Amino acid sequence: MFPYMVNFKVSARTLTGALNAHNKAAVDWGWQGLIAYGCHSLVVVIDSSTAQTLQVLEKHKADVVKVKWARENYHHNIGSPYSLRLASADVNGKIIIWDVAAGVAQCEIQEHAKPIQDVQWLWNQDASRDLLLAIHPPNYIVLWNADTGTKLWKKSYADNILSFSFDPFDPSHLTLLTSEGIVFISDFSPSKPPSGPGKKVYISSPHSSPAHSKLAAATGAKKALNKVKILITQEKPSAEFITLNDCLQLAYLPSKRNHMLLLYPREILILDLEVNQTVGVIAIERTGVPFLQVIPCFQRDGLFCLHENGCITLRVRRSYSSIFNTSNEEPDPDPVQELTYDLRSQCDAIRVTKTVRPFSMVCCPVNENAAALVVSDGRVMIWELKSAVCNRNSRNSSSGVSPLYSPVSFCGIPVGVLQNKLPDLSLDNMIGQSAIAGEEHPKGSILQEVHLKFLLTGLLSGLPSPQFAIRMCPPLTTKNIKMYQPLLAVGTGNGSVLVYHLTSGLLHKELSIHSCEVRGIEWTSLTGFLSFATSTPNNMGLVRNELQLVDLPTGRSIAFRGERGNDESPIEMIKVSYLKQYLAVVFKDKPLELWDVRTCTILREMSKNFPAITALEWSPSHNLKSLRKKQLATREAMARQTVVSDTELSVVESSVISLLQEAESKSELSQNISAREHFVFTDTDGQVYHLTVEGNSVKDSARIPPDGSMGSITCIAWKGDTLVLGDMDGNLNFWDLKGRVSRGIPTHRSWVRKIRFAPGKGNQKLIAMYNDGAEVWDTKEVQMVSSLRSGRNVTFRILDVDWCTSDKVILASDDGCIRVLEMSMKSTCFRMDEQELTGMQFDYPENEEIKTLLQEQLNSLSNDIKKLLLDPEFTLLQRCLLVSRLYGDESELHFWTVAAHYLHSLSQEKAVRTPAAEEAAPREDRANNPLDICYDILCENSYFQKFQLERVNLQEVKRSTYDHTRKCTDQLLLLGQTDRAVQLLLETSADNQHYYCDSLKACLVTTVTSSGPSQSTIKLVATNMIANGKLAEGVQLLCLIDKAADACRYLQTYGEWNRAAWLAKVRLNSEECADVLKRWVDHLCSPQVNQKSKALLVLLSLGCFSSVAETLHSMRYFDRAALFVEACIKYGAIEVSEDTDILCWVVRAEQGAGLQKLISVIYADYARSLKNLGFKQGAILFASKARAAGRDLLKELESPRQEVTEE
């Protein structure tokens, strides 16, 4: 027989409740799937998949205003493991860096004593992952080393800074939202502070724009939006314009370069920063609910929007099948050229009241298919996006919204309709790319239209607002160990009782029992309790008393006192006897009532002259032996009445036996078989009474005169031979009943509100609660063990106390939290791996058995993912991509996304290179399934060019001033669109100071020929311009004469690397473009820049797979390098020659022994790392693939196996 195992381990933890107004923006969703948010001065960490609280961090002395997870964009291995690092900032200006798994503060940072406005981890450097940028009010930005707490630099600005946003495509670009306008910083660097004051621009409020004119009809609305004129100016707007004060948020769009959004309560403005112009407006109708927050997506051009009613909406940019009208049809006289975002899905709103309102929203950064809403009452609601394939006929064509289609690819590779896939894995696996200018969806391909909907998949409820009355269930004993559960009952101000399971910290049951505030709870068994509530007094001082007996398994509650309770004196306390037989009900101005708990009958109502009770306690000593004798006698009498032969007894079923036992217990009750129990109470004079109860008889045993040193007694606790009394003046009186001695201790802490002994035989610890805190005493030694004082140790005030286990106490406090603490009553942080959690996966620490942990993680995966991983058609590239998503590994995710795309493209080209008839197929496939535009420079050149043309067309339509027109002209000339550029140049009015220059420029553009003399003259002028600081003008002239390659070289020489890459993509052929980008790669790999991760992605986009493998190996990314080589072999980027066993790279003609050696070394190093992790089978496999380089390792790995076989 297996021993029965029961889990009753209770860790220190905190149950949190409603939030503070300061916590509004303190929420973040990390790459490892954990959500952190501020709750008063605490930081709560929950798991997004199970909605369980994993950690509560307590060290801040003030309300938390910001939390931010560190990014996961680095290569993980045993030396650089996954780490749960979190920065939290409070209203007193303190920033704490946490190791969340261990629950310890690694570093504390303090600059000023004002609330931190914003914090952000720097993510672009490969070298350091410890840099944290913070806004310290009113106008400082400070860069900190979050590992050591040292300040690297500090910079002040003219205006008060509200928030900031980094350009996701260029980490040297930082934008500050200030009280006056926006400051653009273009030279941000970790090594030194920005040089100048930045470029400051002002924004006129959109309320002065036509976007707020009455939107009567759809066409009118479109025209109104289209006519929004300039909003960004470098001059300060006049007084009648409301400036940026009502701008709620500023953020870059991660889905496309140089776009930013500004959020206002009633609209979202999309700005193109190249022309500083609004290119899209999302306006809410007059009856619509205003915006609170918006989160732009990376994978698709979409926006998660939070509204004031708690509704989350998803808006996705509309596709235009053809923006340019190239046909002979009559053009639209007023084409609406807008970035239009259509509403695609919305979740249910919450019921908003004065105290309940939405605070903030966060989005899953890995998959962008879920959003979490944090509500002011402490709720966290997790909404997941789900996609459903819909019938095309069912679509409402009159809605004007273009359909969404499911993507062709899954995990980076195009898949068939019948292949296994998880459509809801991430946003880019749910909906395909938006069609860009001039692109039509392929007619031959099978496109499935999808609809999106939000589904509530997780809900974490906080505690209601205080007051609280708490009571722990009866303690664990050897007799109840098989059915014991550590349950805590919490009575609330709204009349409900919440029962929490303290092993997991989860809400076990919520019972709406009372109609008014719960004042006290007493357990009658492990599965039942009594709770009482009193209504507010009337003019006579009378109330309605509610006393309910609750059966926890069924949730059934009965009025314990029947019809009694209306218009009577309020109940002060209830006390259940030690053997759970009797209940004493003490009233304020009414005599004591004694009840039988088992039968719910009143045993005795004391006479009117009975003394008024100030404190009462039942004795732990009782006559249990006499009770056992009486029970035995009753059962023998029953047995004589019911004679059953042995043979008959053997066939009596267990259910019948249980019925007999129930009948026995009922007969015992009917015969009033009960043990004698005692209780003591004190009256207003301090006299102690000792009474005995047996059945319905109550006898007055003894009276002890009052102690002169004590004031009015407020509470009594009794355990073993120790009786402790507490009074109004803060005195504790310890009575040793055996030794007949008493000892008074003045604590000087005012009114003793409650005293309670700890459970456990021989455990004489006691907790005392005062107005200003609590103390733990050892009554054996009569000395204090620990103390907690409001305002000194802690900021909260204690509302109620109890013991959780023999060494842990429970404190309910006025900050809406309930804390389970060690006896020392210190911090509540704990190690996450000590928690009893369901369905969790943690990443490996160095000292654990990794195989076991990996097995646990595999077991925690959903069946759909397991099925996918077991599918033989699911390729290595797809596996790598899926695993990077599951682990929230940002670095791996981007690498394998780009690698999968370009390796698949290569294999498609190879597959149809020979048959001429199928030559068009791969190009079409590649054109219709390009790399997402969020990867910008890494996209295919043709797709990138089309996107840039669409963008400049939109800029052209939106231009409203001469400056905008000039910027559009410059872009068109760089893109080679000379005819349209000339048209714009000729639009310059005669009274403009640039009229003459623009006219001459138009003439130059139209007359440029490829003749030698004109080219050389223009080239000479261009180089002179560049030499004299006119870089942009010189580059433009070089592009006019098709010398874009030279222009790129000049741009790179002058440090304009991003601009050079952009120009190469839009103007050069693939070979010249590759040369420019390779020079960029060398620059990125240089020690002063140290962005090798970005360089790897550029090399992948160029198809330089050999260089990728070599760079990965040089960076000691052995696992990624080996898997990449494997993928290259599978996709034909490397061919294996059977004759010579030499591997050769196909794409670049780099063949021979050097390459063979590199691959062997990669395999050997990967085998060693697998061996160190304990994966012997994998190590043997890769050591054998490494051939000569892995021979010694293979012998070492196989030698133990041989020894075993010899034995």
TrEMBL record:
- Chief localization: cytoplasm
Q: Which residues form the WDR11 second beta-propeller domain?
A: 484-825
Say if the entry is tagged with keyword Cytoplasm: yes
Q: Which GO terms describe its cellular component?
A: axoneme; ciliary basal body; cytoplasmic vesicle; Golgi apparatus; nucleus
Location in the cell: Cytoplasm, Cytoskeleton, Cilium axoneme; Cytoplasm, Cytoskeleton, Cilium basal body; Cytoplasmic vesicle; Golgi apparatus, trans-Golgi network
WDR11 first beta-propeller domain span: 21-319
* Superkingdom of the source species: Eukaryota
Keywords on this record? Cell projection, Cytoplasm, Cytoplasmic vesicle, Cytoskeleton, Golgi apparatus, Nucleus, Phosphoprotein, Repeat, WD repeat
The record's annotation in SMART domains points to: WD40
Q: Name one Pfam family in it.
A: Beta-prop_WDR11_2nd
- Domain named WDR11 TPR: residues: 945-1131
Tell me the function of this protein.
Involved in the Hedgehog (Hh) signaling pathway, is essential for normal ciliogenesis. Regulates the proteolytic processing of GLI3 and cooperates with the transcription factor EMX1 in the induction of downstream Hh pathway gene expression and gonadotropin-releasing hormone production. WDR11 complex facilitates the tethering of Adaptor protein-1 complex (AP-1)-derived vesicles. WDR11 complex acts together with TBC1D23 to facilitate the golgin-mediated capture of vesicles generated using AP-1.
What name does the UniProt record give this protein? WD repeat-containing protein 11
Q: Which organism is it from?
A: Camelus dromedarius
